[in-house]
Specification:
It is a single chain. By secondary structure, the chain is α+β, with helices and mostly antiparallel strands. It has a single domain (30-185), classed as Glutaredoxin (3-Layer(aba) Sandwich). The chain has five helices and six strands, in the order H-E-E-E-H-E-H-H-E-E-H. It has helices spanning 3-27, 67-78, 101-112, 131-139, 174-185; strands spanning 35-36, 42-43, 52-58, 83-89, 152-155, 161-165. It has a four-stranded mixed β-sheet, with helices on one face. A two-stranded antiparallel sheet has the order 1-2.
């Protein structure tokens, strides 16, 4: 067999494998992704289906850490309208989240009175990124990597990623608040009675 044909076959195999992996990742339902909350309990995002989600990768020792206050304020202000802020601690960026889940929970509660749901510390970038972040990156319009702590992904009531905001976009910013309010105005899709 000629070398040109071998390379063509290998190229086709690589493309096939890549598309099969991409299909599995992109077709997975956001609400079925397995997660662990900050207290160690297994869960999913199913309890938040039909609500607007603001998913944020957090860290306790970052220059953006004071954004916890603004995130809690957003949660308090809009939770009755259907917004849920979800915090995902990560130690990916200059080791700015070195603590255990218990330490992170205590830090957030005692310093910023965080009451919104927090989850297990896990990676949000690279090959080791937790499945939720793999999903967000695959479904976000810009498909860009998470570059730092306190990046924000806004998910609409239909489970689709609406927007992605970099760390410098504060919780109080007009840009973020406007996007949240628009997402909250959208009608929640009806959930079929036979869904698990």
């Amino acid at each position: 067999m000629r070398m040109k044909n071998v390379f063509a076959m290998l190229g086709g195999l690589v493309l096939f494998c890549h598309s099969a992996v991409a299909e599995v990742t992109t077709s997975q339902d956001l609400y079925q992704i397995q997660l662990t909350n900050i207290d160690g309990a297994k869960t999913t995002l199913k309890p938040y289906q039909g609500q607007v989600l603001l998913i944020v990768n957090t860290a306790s020792g970052c220059g953006y850490t004071p954004q916890y206050k603004g995130l809690e304020s957003l949660y308090t202000r809009y939770k009755s309208k259907g917004l849920v802020v979800l915090g995902f601690p990560s130690n990916d960026f200059l080791y700015q989240e070195p603590g255990t889940n218990a330490q992170i929970k205590y830090f957030c509660k005692s310093n910023y009175q965080v009451d919104f749901p927090m989850f297990d510390k896990a990676s949000v970038r690279g090959g080791g990124a937790q499945p939720l972040y793999q999903y967000l990156l695959n479904h976000c319009e810009d498909h860009s990597v998470v570059r730092w702590n306190f990046e924000k992904y806004l998910v609409g009531r239909d489970g689709k990623v609406v927007n992605h905001f970099r760390s410098g976009v504060t919780p109080e910013s007009d840009e973020l608040v406007k996007s949240i309010e628009e997402a909250l105005r959208a009608t929640a899709p009806k959930i079929k009675a036979n869904q698990p």
